[in-house]
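Record 1 of the preview.
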Amino acid sequence: MNLNQLINPITDDDVGWVVDLMKLEALDEPRRQFLKSMNTVDVSACPGSGKTTLVVAKLAILARHWKSRTQGICVLSHTNAAREEIEQRLGGSDIGQRLLRYPHYIDTIHGFTARFLASPWLRSKGITLTAIDDEATHNARRKALTPWEYRGMKTAFESAHLNTEKLRIETVDFDNPLAGREFHFAPHTATYKSVSKALSHAAKTGHFCFDEVFVLANALLNEEPAVTAALRVRFPCILVDEMQDTRHEQANILCRVFPRRDPEVCVIRVGDPNQEIFEEKVELPEPFPDVACSMEIASSFRFSQAIASIANPFAYLPITGGLIGLRQDVATQPIPNTVIVFPDHDASQVLDAYGRLLIKHLPVDVRKSDVFALGAVHRLENFKPEHYPKAVEHYWPSYQSGVNKASFKPRTFAEGAHIARQYLERDATAASGVELVASCLLTLVRLAFPKELIPARSRHHQWLEQLMMGRVELVALYRECLHRLLFDSAELTKTVWDSTAAPALLELVAEMTGSDSTLAATDAHPYLEWVPAPVAVDPGDNGGALLNTYRFEEGMDSVHIRLSSIHAEKGKTHAATLILETYNRTHFVNKLLPWLEGKASAVKRPNESAKKSMMLMYVGMTRPTHMLCLAMRKSSLGEGKVEAKRRAALAQAGWSILEI
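->
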């Protein structure tokens, strides 16, 4: 049965029911239209529009009337935001429980591909899927080679300015994984043979990098075309969230399994095409949004119209009627969105100037929530003096770029424990800290008992709890380790680590794998070595700074400014955001001056080279609820008449100017 056969048409009563159930604000017509739609549609939803909440509301309505016990709704995204929203908003209701279990399915696109396509294909070939994890796969490949073979391969790659960790299988012929592809080294060379051996061994033992699941998935679809029809019967309704971030290989799978032209399947794609900041050079097989069947949600609950008007010119795909800010300022004086102008060769006072603005204009309770400074470039590489300021580090030398990466993995377990503790100080919940410790624990399993490798999953803590289900003593041991590492008020010292924490962790992973801790591989010992807590160099902090958090003090007042990249903060909400001038071929803010000034030339369709910069600026500008700031070099303002004209244009566009 298709969607229209599975549920009755959605009515205004259904919309009213879900508004009461989820305690939603009054819904405007575009949002009501989305909730009532039962056809294939693309939805362009602006930042702060409550998109995920709206998606969950629609799912709740569908689940309320769902008739089938064997067919379900498939919800896919790049993160588990939808599942977490269901757990938070509907977890205690019958509707929420229905959505979270069979026949419905909520997961990442990778998770869906692995479960329904890659794993079945591997099983059909007699291969057990061990891990979908880049690091575990690289280690499996390394262990397939003798030390001499590995050193030779690594040396050859480095000499050719290549990286062994970029290696990927492109075929399911695991006996000849390099056959039929362009490769830097000739088939007769030792390097070619070593690479082939490494790729073959890892694949045959079930180790794959994240993006290799699509190779396996396509193999199944090519060999068994009936699979697609079966999956469309199983899931007559599919909802894809954050569609703008979908890569070509992901979109290709979605297109093959759930083609939007098929009248028997309802494909709802939701996202913001103006936040497509992850480079994709190949056009998607079904571009998003499809203007033939699309709708817009252009109003944001996150910010006021003042911020909306500043951000609107940076929407690469123009928003009909412009971006609308629904939040009303309650302050007696309007909060100034400010351009902080600094000397071209000295950005050292920018964060202090920002801190003063925060203390002056934001209430204490507001500035205690997330206030950020973001850079389009946050990793300092290949620096030349004319690039200054090139990256976030130029504003604060203690900035550590690796910590903000989604793929960040501590070098040792102790480092992970220190950072997890700092997450607890920084965040309102313990989720990030617990997740990091769980990730470190799975790494320790891999290093200590490589033959007992636990398959990787995206949500580490939840996965460990599932694995330990029913093993009461093991669960108690795991929770005791979490308490000792995260919640014990006593300082985590070298003595405590060496005598208590490290042995307990090794004992825990031994119990998890049914092994003996005395038989742990030697690779585990360096990972369990003690390292002191990383301390940010901040004279106002007395040695207790959080990682990548700058503390500014003025009299009895203080504010913590968190530094990060624009990419890392996409999808998040800040109280205040400062966008820093950085350099990549040209200075980021300076390049976008025509849009900042509201020049007529900027209204025309921008060229492709401006697309990424505009989208990055749009993402950065639409994070804050209360205050938006820019850091700009003095030379960007120009001199004489040019400067006067530029200052007037910025003021007209809604900016205040503060010159250091």
